[in-house]
Design a protein that fits this description.
By secondary structure, the chain is mainly beta. It contains two helices and 29 strands. It folds into two domains: about 1-55; about 60-390, Beta-galactosidase, Chain A, domain 5 (Distorted Sandwich). It has helices at about 5-55, 100-105; strands spanning about 60-65, 70-75, 80-85, 90-95, 115, 120-125, 125-130, 135, 145, 160-165, 170-175, 190-200, 200-210, 215, 220, 240, 245-250, 260, 275, 290-295, 300, 305-310, 315-320, 325-330, 340, 345, 355, 370-375, 380-390. Strands 10, 11, 12, 13, 16, 19, 21, 22, 23 and 29 form a ten-stranded antiparallel sheet that branches. A five-stranded antiparallel sheet has the order 18-17-20-24-27, with no helix packed on it. A hairpin with a 2-residue loop joins strand 21 (about 300) and strand 22 (about 305-310). The chain is globular. Residues about 30-55 have low confidence and may be disordered.
């Protein structure tokens, strides 16, 4: 055969190398396209996840055991109505609230029925220092930060984890609070479960676990109760007994002074049952808005008795047990002309709140029980509401 010249051999080699380079280039291009495609899919899925989370809608759910009827929304884990029978078996809604979700979403509710956090109650000047770092919070109740800030746990949509029907119906909500949210450090996962544990009792279990930083946590349930019915005027005729020998007195800005004050012989003394209206005008300010030190209550199911409330006209009674160190007794001092369910107009003292909690401003008071929770630790706060007539 005819031998190829050196020129022909060189040309053949160049064509061979070009083919290899072409294949390699196509491979690189295909690999790049594949990588870009995967990244695009990942970004798309991530955006869809974020979008689906942000698009969680407020909904209304019902728990009903045949005797007690409770409606609750995943917006702020809010109890919107709770109906229990009176001495004649007649049902009445005994919590303040609205007929629809819209007023809650517009901020018309002064914390009606919700769970407040990351830290309930007031933090002085909206500041605290933890592990040498100073944190600044929104001043939503000047000059202090109240109930977690402008967008606390009461103003977010929680995920519905489980909704059970049956003899003991329950519903569980979940919320992930991000690092820096309303000024607080660290990511925190929070759950809250309402359960009708019997025909006359409702239990609330709140849990929170910090993921990566120590952070203060203090959750409270902020329902306004009127045992005569939500539309029955003020609660000054209700009687109350509080299982506390001490309160934490406050300054002119409703911040505890740090003192633990005995209640004996003062208008704050509810160690024995008495009418709310009997001493309310003797306390400074517009009414009761004070933290009671829960210390001497009887135990039930691992919880301590916090308070007993009775309404004379309906004979309805509410007993509350909890495992928190304190309870804010609040008499709706700042509710003024709020139009609620069925057109009812809620005014001053139209309800009362029994907010079991850690002590207000505990993050800035060394002698108060600590509200700081470490990463991996579990914060637990349970409440048991028992209804009866007598």
């Amino acid at each position: 055969p005819k031998l190829k010249s050196e020129k022909d051999v060189t040309a053949t080699r160049i064509r061979f190398l070009l083919r290899i380079q072409h294949k390699h280039t196509l491979s690189v291009i295909n690999s790049s396209i594949s990588t870009l495609f995967c990244r695009s899919i990942s970004i798309f899925l991530r955006r869809q996840t974020i979008r689906s989370m942000s698009e969680k809608k407020p909904e209304l759910f019902e728990l009903n055991n045949g005797t007690m009827q409770v409606k609750v929304t995943n917006y702020g884990c809010t109890i919107t109505s709770l109906s229990v029978p009176d001495k004649d078996g007649k049902l009445a809604d005994v919590v303040l609230g609205f007929d629809s979700l819209e007023p809650y979403l517009k901020g018309a509710a002064p914390f009606f029925g919700c769970i407040v956090g990351r830290v309930a109650n007031r933090i002085k000047d909206g500041k605290f220092t933890l592990n040498g770092v100073e944190y600044s919070l929104p001043i939503n109740r000047p000059p202090n930060s109240l109930h977690g800030g402008f967008k606390g746990f009461d103003k977010v949509v929680w995920e519905v984890v489980e909704h059970k029907q049956g003899e003991n119906p329950s519903i569980t909500f979940k919320y992930h609070s991000h690092d820096g949210e309303e000024g607080y450090p660290g990511d925190v996962t929070v759950t809250a479960t309402y359960t009708l544990t019997s025909s006359t009792t409702m239990r609330l279990d709140m849990e929170a676990v910090p993921q990566n930083k120590p952070t203060p946590i203090n959750l409270a349930q902020h329902t306004y109760w009127n045992l005569s019915g939500h539309n029955s005027g003020n609660v000054l005729d209700h009687s109350i007994q509080i299982s506390a020998m001490h309160v934490t007195p406050v300054d002119q800005n409703t911040i505890p002074t740090g003192e633990i004050m005995p209640v004996k012989g003062t208008p704050w003394d509810f160690t024995t049952e008495k009418k709310i209206g009997s001493s309310i005008h003797e306390v400074p300010g517009l009414g009761y808005d004070h933290n009671y030190v829960l210390e001497n209550g009887d135990e039930k199911l691992g919880l301590k008795h916090a308070a007993k409330v009775k309404n004379p006209s309906s004979s309805r009674v509410l007993n509350l047990w909890a495992n928190a160190p304190g309870m804010q007794f609040y008499t709706a001092n700042y509710v003024n002309g709020v139009v609620g369910k069925g057109g009812a107009v809620y005014g001053k003292h139209s309800g009362l709140c029994l907010e079991t909690q850690g002590f207000p401003n505990a993050i800035n008071q060394q002698n108060f029980p600590s509200v700081v929770v470490q990463p991996g630790e579990k914060y637990q706060h349970s409440m048991l509401f028992e209804f009866s007539v007598e």
